Amino acid sequence: MASMTQSRSATSIGSPDGSDEPALLRAARRQPARTPPVWFMRQAGRSLPEYRKVREGVPMLEACRRPDLVTEITLQPVRRHGVDAAILFSDIVVPLRAVGVDLDIVAGVGPVIAEPVRQLADLDRIPRLDPGQVDYVGDAVTTLVGELHGTPLIGFAGAPFTLASYLVEGGPSRDHARTKALMHGDPALWSALLDRLADVALTFLKVQIDAGAQAVQLFDSWAGALSAADYAAHVLPHSAKVLAGLADLGVPRFHFGVGTGELLPLMARAGADVVGVDWRVPLDEASARIGPGCAVQGNLDPALLLADWPVVEREVRRVIADGRSAPGHVFNLGHGVLPNTDPDMLTRVVELVHSAAD
Fold this sequence. Notes:
This protein has 358 residues and is α/β, with parallel strands linked by helices. It has helices at residues 23-28, 49-55, 60-64, 67-81, 94-98, 135-148, 160-169, 177-185, 187-211, 228-234, 236-244, 264-269, 283-290, 309-323, 343-355, and strands spanning 86-87, 103-106, 110-113, 153-158, 215-219, 253-256, 274-276, 295-300, 329-333. The chain is 43% helix and 11% strand. A seven-stranded parallel sheet has the order 1-4-5-6-7-8-9. It has a two-stranded antiparallel sheet with strand order 2-3. Mean pLDDT is 94; it is low at 1-18.
């Protein structure tokens, strides 16, 4: 594929129907638009050669603590692709590290916790987050808002369940067995842990909003490992605490998980304005499950970006068509951009979405 320019200006200043409000915010508020806004989860990351260059020799958590790097990396996909939103370059474990949890992000593995949570006394190692402990995040957000010239910046945090899974398992897990065992075997500890993590996530999101983030996304990446009954009883109240704590701040709240087709109505009930949908459920069906009170986000399978353009074009048009039945649609992938994705393919997808009016 021929190389495309890396100096594209973002197209999100004003919505596709000519309004002065950014398209992302209009879609999140279920206001009409000719075409959906588009951004990609993990758009600021390993698929971009400019990202790999600035990250060379810099550990992930160090990069997240450097406002200069956070700013540059967050801006890279906006410059290259012309997406309708930037998402803050960070990681869901950043606030845990900030409060003193002994963890590291190991290349090829993910977050690894030195001392997993096993008993009530372990909660002492997870104090509440003070905003000053992540002032570098606020500094980066403030700088980015000025640099983005009206393109919305999305802040984010890890949801209580997903953070708890890392803390209990000690790292990534395929079956979340220890997590589920603790949830059912010691419900008092489980509730106390998730309540603490809800406070951490809420504070982390407020820091970003106070610094100028115009939307936020709560990532519950591993919630799809749960049954609907377990999610409703043991997880939903804590995610709802986070989202309710943001209700009066005037920013759209996105809520996303992987493999959550059976949980979509519950995730909406937690208080989201926009529910993210992975690639397993068509958007029209997902919107029917969620109900009219929420917009939807998604949901092209990120693996399809490795196919030839005719395949990608067909599937992008299908996702857009499915999304028209929802009260609002933000085009995205069903999960994050894969590292071996051709950046030019992402740029072509953005151009197609922006041109796909009725």
